[in-house]
Write a structure and sequence with these properties.
The chain is an alpha+beta fold. It has eleven helices and 13 strands. The radius of gyration is 22 Å and the shape is flat.
Length: 418
């Protein structure tokens, strides 16, 4: 029997994502000045107010919190007083204090390679063959739809009533035997908009624009096999309440780390106990989750399995993982068992925090782009960034989303005899 599976995403203007982006922007500014900075930054935003709190340890970095916060809010598009939350007039309060010495002593070691995990916990990575980026299709489509909607909003030539806050949700019908996607079953799109003179005319126009402008632009970006899943018979719900004028932090409080399923796999894999944004890479909540994604993606790409979940766990202050677990959902090739896969992972990949940070260049200010539209399944790229290193300001080419690279495939195939 066929079954349905649903995932959602939220736009960069969603209040929780506003908070995530502010937290990661502050992290980036500390790392830009001090690559060894330890940061755990949380953000709360509501009507006309942003509160930033958390713990920071740095020898010489100074970050203008007001400037960073207002810059993020302006970039997102909250720049009008009528939004009841805008970059020029919102209040910004900082309650950042120094990192606890009890935490710091577990992380910092005389030999940097012995750096301990910044906390205990378990982290997950997941990959499957549903998309070219080895991500679950419902989540990938939700992210793409909202990125496209943001492009339309910024272009300003169509759907000119759009405001920054939005959510998208895709339900896919799957074959019960092969577990392959068959068709788009339901699309839900809620988007903030300007006030209209008549609510009924407003709702009809937005619905028509979503069907005739937004969805065709999304489909045009897809491979032919995925585009064919849009058979025209899907159910479409647009702004189901009928009106969505009040949105963003004025419509709902935003908090860092409250969209962890959006950040990862849309509920298809698993998620550990911690969120990502605002945390420096000594926090394995973040860095080890990236490493686990890298492992799962490279193993699936190498042909070890068609679908794979990887779990790693740590003890605070201890460098090596406490455990490594793998689940191939019965899709492993060459008769491999999940325990054999987990054992090979331990042999192939160095999962000490220092090794993970070095492998992916996580001491660099690369986190802002992760804070909206997912940390996983993104296209890796190299771009120049300005940093202060050894007392000098320099421009360096830095790898973004390095955990999405497939450079471990040859080593995996060799280790597994594929």
């Amino acid at each position: 029997m066929n079954y349905l599976f649903t995932s959602e995403s939220v736009s960069e203007g969603h209040p929780d994502k506003v908070a995530d982006q502010i937290s990661d922007a502050i992290l980036d500014e500390f790392l830009r000045q001090d690559r060894h900075a330890k940061v755990a930054c949380e953000t709360f935003c509501s009507t006309g107010l942003v509160i930033v709190g958390g713990e920071v340890r740095s020898d010489d970095a100074y970050v203008d919190i007001q400037e960073v916060v207002r810059g993020v809010i302006a970039r997102i598009g909250y720049n009008k007083a009528e939004y009841m939350f805008d970059s020029n007039s919102c209040g910004v309060l900082s309650a950042i204090h120094e990192q606890s010495m009890d935490i710091n002593r577990g992380v910092v070691r005389e030999n940097p390679e012995d750096q301990g995990a910044g906390d205990q916990g378990m982290m997950f990575g997941y990959a499957c063959r549903e998309t070219e980026d080895y991500m679950p299709l419902p989540l990938a489509l939700s992210h793409l739809t909202l990125r496209t909607l943001a492009d339309i909003r910024r272009e300003g030539s169509e759907m000119t009533y759009l405001r920054p806050d939005a959510k998208a949700q895709f339900t896919i019908e799957y074959d019960g035997d092969t577990r392959k996607p068959l068709r788009i079953h339901t699309i839900v799109l809620s988007t903030q908009h300007d006030e209209f003179a008549a609510d009924e005319a407003m709702h009809a126009r937005i619905t028509a624009d979503v069907r005739n402008i937004l969805i065709p632009r999304v489909v045009a970006q897809l491979p032919a096999s995925t585009a064919a899943l849009f058979d025209g018979n899907f159910i479409l719900h647009v702004n189901p309440t009928g009106k969505f004028v009040i949105g963003g932090p004025a419509g709902d409080t935003g908090l860092t780390g409250r969209k962890i399923i959006v950040d990862t796999y849309g509920g298809r894999g698993a998620h550990g106990g911690g969120a990502f944004s605002g945390k420096d890479p000594s926090k394995v909540d973040r860095s080890a989750a990236y490493a686990a994604r890298y492992i799962a993606k490279n193993l699936v790409a190498a042909g070890v399995a068609d679908e794979l979940l990887v779990q790693v766990s740590y003890a605070i202050g201890v460098a090596k993982p406490v455990s490594i677990y793998a689940n191939s959902y019965g899709t492993a090739h060459n008769g491999l068992t999940d325990s054999e896969i987990a054992a090979k992972i331990a042999q192939i990949f160095d999962l000490r925090p220092a090794a993970i940070i070095r492998k992916f260049g996580l001491e660099n200010p690369i986190y802002g782009p992760t804070a909206a539209y997912g940390h996983m399944g993104r296209k890796p790229y190299v771009a120049p960034v300005q940093v202060r290193r050894d007392g000098q300001t320099v421009t360096r080419d830095v790898q973004f989303f390095g955990w999405e690279l497939l450079d471990a495939v040859p080593a995996v195939q060799k280790a597994f005899g594929l």
